[in-house]
Amino acid sequence: MLTVINIDTLKLGDRSYIAHDGTIALVVDPQRDIERIHQLLEREGLTLGAVVETHMHNDYVSGGLQLARAHNVPYLISKTDPVSYDRFEVSDKQIVPIGSFALQALHTPGHTYTHMSYVLLDAKQNAQGVFTGGSMLHGSTGRPDLLGADNSAELAGLQHDSVQKIAELLSDKVSIYPTHGFGSFCSATPTSGDVSTIADERKSNPALTLGREAYVAQTLAALDSFPSYFKYMAPINLAGPAPLDLSALKSMSVDEIMKSIADGSWIADLRSRTSWTGGHVPGTISFGLDGSMASYLGWLFPYDDKLILISDNATDVNTAQVELARIGIDHPEGSFVGDFSNFHTLDATRTVTFKELPQAMKEKSLTVLDVRSLSERAASHIKPSINIQLHDLANRLDEIPRGPEIWVHCASAYRATIAIGILERSGIKAVLINDAYKACLNVAGLEIVEGTYDASAR
Fold first, then answer.
1. How far is Cα of residue 184 from the mean position of the Cα atoms in its chain?
2. Is the CATH code 3.40.250.10 the one for domain 351-457?
3. Contact, 299 vs 289, CB < 8 A?
4. Buried b (16+ CB within 10 A) or exposed e, 179-197
5. What is the largest CA-CA distance in the chain?
6. Domain 3-239 listed as CATH 3.40.50.150
7. Contact status, residue 331 vs residue 245, Cβ threshold 8 Å
8. pTM, full prediction
9. How far is Cα 250 from Cα 242, in angstroms, rounded to an integer?
10. Mind listing the pLDDT tens digit for each residue in 203-249?
11. To which CATH superfamily is domain 254-342 assigned?
């Protein structure tokens, strides 16, 4: 009897796995913070037999190399991936024994050219599951544009072929274990559900319900922006990630923080947006740990700049170090932990709800700034409003009318709070609509425009 344990990294929308026969274990697509894997192996009384990578990840730094080295076990990677370290090379259809079970490698290009999926075989060579990485996801597929626009159409076609290949090879009852698709930007379109089988995918996956040409067209049309930090991840994974460094950051004083702000350093306030809007150090940006901090900070932060973390408790800083290390931001410049009243000046941000918007629009000339993605905007938006995606905001400030007030919103208020910080760093005051976007859909007096998104119109 084989068991599969999910290891979720919710903030990045990814999932790693431990598969085992009760004695020997296999780890699939581990994140960089491998200590939690060590703890699970110890808790379950398992001996690690191998580590496998479905592909060179574009959205996180892998812990596979260090995990395999720590346990002196084979590290399974496609023979066509040009890595800079020793690995156990695997090819299409190759079967690799691990304890009483085995893996069968399947070349499934589409997310990348060298992508591999792995069928989990029991002692009788029966398929019990398939680790699909960024190929077949739950109701979707991995996005095909991470290697550049010139390759997107070809990779989308290959993705369709690969998902068809998986479905043709395996029976309906086989479980699907993808790495991406739980909120990951590596998903081409939103995914559905927490579990799935081949039978489920035959009903819902566009690569199985559409012909090749229609799938390619639909997939390319649905693609939205992805984080800029993705460009760093695959090179790090190909070169071989260094061991995780979670040593204590330099403790900084109030005066050192203020000097760093004046020097242009990035100061990430890790507290909740309620705390940040209630009182924050001018020049800081809210990246609260109650949201996808690493994804958005990594998207906006120039990796060559200095980054400093601040909070009113040390746990926040420790948590942020782990989350940032997962995307290759190692050992920030320093941190401040303490009472924010020690700072001479704190700014407060005015917060409102969507219910207040119709009356405000009647009484004053205000600008509604929507910082959501293009696909979110196209699906539904407030009229009148302007849309500047969060990751474009710093470079498009001159497009924002300098009226009496600017009210900023997103889907949940998390990105909008970040946007307020970016505006303030440029001397622009704004008001936060501290509300979920869906709340505006039932507000009388607001005009909502609905439509569909087509990436080709970007």
1. 4
2. yes
3. no
4. bbbbbbbbbbbebeeeebb
5. 74
6. no
7. yes
8. 0.95
9. 21
10. 999 999 999 999 999 999 999 999 999 999 999 999 999 999 999 99
11. Rhodanese-like domain (3.40.250.10)
